[in-house]
Amino acid sequence: MLPKHYLVEIRKQVTAQFVKRFKKNRVPKYGSINKGFSEQEVQAFFRVIKNPKFHLLFSYQAKLGLRLGEARRINIKDIKFETRELVVKTEKAMTLDTLLIPAPLFKETLDYISTNKKAIEGAAGYLFFKEKGKGRTLEPYLDEGYVRNQFTEFINKAGLDEVYDMSDESSTKKSSRKLHRLTTHSLRHYAIKHFAEQTNGNVFLTSKFARHLQPSVTMAYINTNKKQLYENIDGAFSVNQAITLKARLSRIS
Questions:
Q1: pTM of the model
Q2: Structural domain boundaries enclosing 53
Q3: Which pLDDT does position 182 carry in this prediction?
Q4: What share of the chain in percent tops pLDDT 90?
Q5: Model confidence over 12-29: pLDDT tens digits?
Q6: Residue 72, number of CB atoms within 10 A of its CB
Q7: Could you tell me if residue 199 is inside a domain?
Q8: 112: closest CA among 166, 149, 155, 57?
Q9: Residue 101 phi/psi, 5° resolution?
Q10: Please, is 219 exposed, middle or buried when counting C-beta atoms within 10 Å of its C-beta (0-12, 13-18, 19+)?
Q11: Structural domains in the chain (count)
Q12: What average pLDDT does this structure show over 6-12?
């Protein structure tokens, strides 16, 4: 028979593996909270960004739905100038995709490249080159942590920060942290939802735009429209019905 402390250690290891394997499959506790930018919020966000580099980087997320890592790693070789296309190595599926760059974004990109030509060449062609002293990694493009910190500054400056809950940490070594509704990924949420609205909710096209392997994943992005939910609630329960229901409940109580 194994000693008790061996059994305790084995149990800890099994529990840790279980949490690591199945925690990611939990249903997100934010439910119907819309974690994407609204039209008003995205406009307020970009109004406070005066730095051309970050304005362009976040524009690629908001207009083409790029993930942060995909946007940070855009190289001048990825842009097909003749056809106005961007070649994207999709992070999740590890496949190569092409997306048409909208004309205003393409013009902004050309102006940015023209202004920062030498710096981009010195960074092996990466558009979002790292400046000296700005980051801890050796890559010539911007560090993820540095970009996220800049994003947070812009969100605070625009008055858009919103904490919706505290995290549930599985490790006792980690303390709970604030969960913010708007993150860099919220720009991708906005782009996907906006594209879905422009295509009258065409899930197949939106899934292609988002570069999701399964349309069911896309639904998680476009089914969190609070405005539509509230309008349907109002439609299902008219004012007269609500008054009648309230009267009934008061009699019961």
A1: 0.75
A2: 34-161+177-222
A3: 93
A4: 47
A5: 665 655 555 544 444 445
A6: 23
A7: yes
A8: 57
A9: -85, 120
A10: middle
A11: 1
A12: 58
Rounded to whole angstroms, how far apart are CA atoms 60 and 98? 13
**Residue 74 forms part of a structural domain:** yes
163-172 pLDDT per residue, tens: 888 877 666 6
Question: Is 170 part of any domain?
Answer: no
Whether 131 is in a domain gets the answer yes
CB 151 within 8 A of CB 58: yes
For position 157, which CATH number holds?
1.10.443.10
* Residue, of 56 and 206, whose pLDDT is higher: 56
Torsion (CA) 155, 161, 164, 165 in degrees, nearest 10: 80
* pLDDT at residue 114 is higher than 70: yes
